[in-house]
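Troubleshooting log. The previous run stalled partway through. Resubmitting the same two chains, unchanged.
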Amino acid sequence: MTFDSLLFLFRFLPVFLICYYVVPQGMKNLVLFLGSLVFYAWGEPYYALLLVFLILVHYVLGLLIEATHRIHEKRAFVIVSVLLNVGFMLGFRYADALIEASNEWLGSDYTALGLEAPIGLMIYSLCAISYVVDVYRGDAKAQHNPLQLAVYLAFFPRLLAGPIDCYCDTGRYLKERHVDLAAISSGLRRFIVGLAKKVLLADELFLLWEECLSSATGDVLGAWLGIFAYAFALYFTLSGYSDMAIGLGNLMGFRFRENFRHPYVADSIKDFWRRWYVSMGEWFHSYVYIPMGGNQYGVIKQLINVIFVWLLIGFWQGGSINLLLWGLWYALLLLLDKFFLGKVMELLPGILRQILTFLAVLIGWVFFAFESPLDMLSYLGMLFGVGASSIAGREALFLGREYFLVLVIAVVASLPLANHLTARLSVSKTGPAMALYRVGEKLIPSLLLLLSIASIVGGGGIHG
Amino acid sequence: MDERRNHLLTIGLIACIFLVLAGANLFSEGTIDAAEVSEDTVLSGAFGEDYEADLKERFVGTEKWKRVWNNTELLLGKRCMNGVYIGSSGQLFAVHGPSDYAQELVDAQVDDLKQLVLDWDADVLLVPTADNILTDRLPAFAPYYDETALLSQVQESVGDEHYIDAFSILSEHADEYIYYRTEERITSLGAYYAFLAWADFEGKYPYPYRSDRLAVVTDSFVGGNGQKLGSIAKTDSISVFPETLQRKVSVVTDQGTHYDSYYEPSAVGEENVLDYFLGETTAFLEIQTDYHPGSTLFVIGDSTAEILIPLLGAQYERIYLVNPKEYRGDLSELLRSCQPDTGMDVLVLYDCISFLNTFTY
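Second attempt completed without errors. Output:
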């Protein structure tokens, strides 16, 4: 089940919210956990058992870490958690590849398991590790109520694309939460904005990307158009899901930090990663980079740490060669930025810095998009005219014309303009500006919701 | 307005949309067969996908939502939806992908055609698709398959003495109503111009049809391309030459169905209105006319042929039509069995894309 499916919007969500609001405070966690299990089990029933298993294991590990005073025992329990979570990720991703390799090289005759990584595994594994590490560090107390830990790990709004909230941040909402009208109102609006981002923009842009690939335009314009569409499609998918998660969280009294802060206006790669999937960046910084020593032990060690962390992020994203290369690309850019490029960039005007950063990010998305290194190289070449059939073919011109307005809307929507405008209008207490704000905050989400439904029901896009 | 009332209004408005639609959809009729719901389908997740598709299918006001979305896309400047280009003057064009006209496919089809022409001294009339004739109505930069290369290859392969050029005459009349707006087919008027090209090529005196006196059968035809776009498509008219309505003919299909006209009026108002021409598409049919005793025409073709045959009827006593896409037997055997002692004309009659995708010999 996904947030942009009719099942979620018109079956699950209304029923879940009604149940959630009518039950007494003491029962809300139970409703939330059961709702999360239903959400999770729909489509992947077996994998719900894996989630329950991990909840139980981490509940016990948390208690064990708290109970022991021996540091090496505490560490051992943390290592168990890390091995377990990484083991599952490895298992789901590489089991079939290992079986194939074994059959080919060792002559064995095992049948491929056909495993696919469960939805949410990447998210709740990191949350589970954050829980035991926070308890180990003393940043949080072990959770004695298994239901509260279950709510933290299985929390359905963030299972699709985060935010990856650390236990030390979210723990305070687990026992009791209060929802007021302002939170419900902003939560609904935020959810709809996220839905519209995903359905009205991301899905359209993914179609453009697919058309650029399938029409095999083979020209420079088509290649740039395609990767531009892909970049914005990814952004609106992930930030859309994050908005929906934050909005749903608000509806239940949770407060999550922003996960995307207009990343395509970043003026350096470092700035980009402060804006793109912030919770993921912070998680790897807090739970991997800093424990490894960060930049505390000299340049060489820092270099190794940065490369390791980015390889790990590539692995976490999917683990294929192209994703590891994508991780290395950012490791390289960040190191260059730190030791050399950053100083040069500072000499350039802001807009040029933003354009150059965006170009570097676009090239990164080519690594991200193509699993086959040959396809990746061929596409990269095409961007710069190597192996391209022409500068601008008929197909590319048509697609550019066809999606021109969608692209313009996507660019505008990725800028902080709406935030600035809303902030300016909302500070007015009286007068036409306030009236405009009041009407807009009701009509715009309603219109976006209706258009999103029209797209889901009437469009041929990629929903559900 | 105080904050509290303001929040309540926002929540009320959005909650209303959710709850009204959720409530309305609770009572819509499902189409998932209970037999499809099994432990396997549920545990594998397949049921979840079917259920979502079912919800989408029966969502309250599906057609209205589709109209809203199609209009939104039009407003956004989209001119290609659901595999259809939306051209100027409401002209719709099917989008053909590169796989429809890959060079290997072209070579194979042209080789088969050449063999048929050699074996049966057949003539070939390929009608270009609308995008090649009404090119100026295509959306700006819309890619389309330029059929002139295919037609040149066909002409070169079968020889000038077997190739009937319909492209030129249709291009000359491109500003007339020669293609349906909502369907990838020529109209009766388009068929008339192809008929003139055929008569000119064969050196026959064409039956003097009056192209200014077409009889309208329906004004509310929405073809396949139009159906893909729903209500944003304009409607078409289907017209026929009155002379073809008046002369008595006998049409017998391989299914044993018998008509005494080229046209099947009951098809008007049905899903496939173009079945009006020679009834429901069948593998093989035989037409008996009271013209030109002793002359026989064997047509190998598709639905374009069905539109043109009523005009050819005035030139032959007997016409056979085989649609290789539907015909499962040996085409050579069929040709032999139909050939009278006095011989017969053989005509390959397709639109270009159907020729590439359905012609077999």
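Takeaways: The first helix of chain B runs from residue 3 to 26. Chain B touches chain A through 50 residues (CB under 8 Å).
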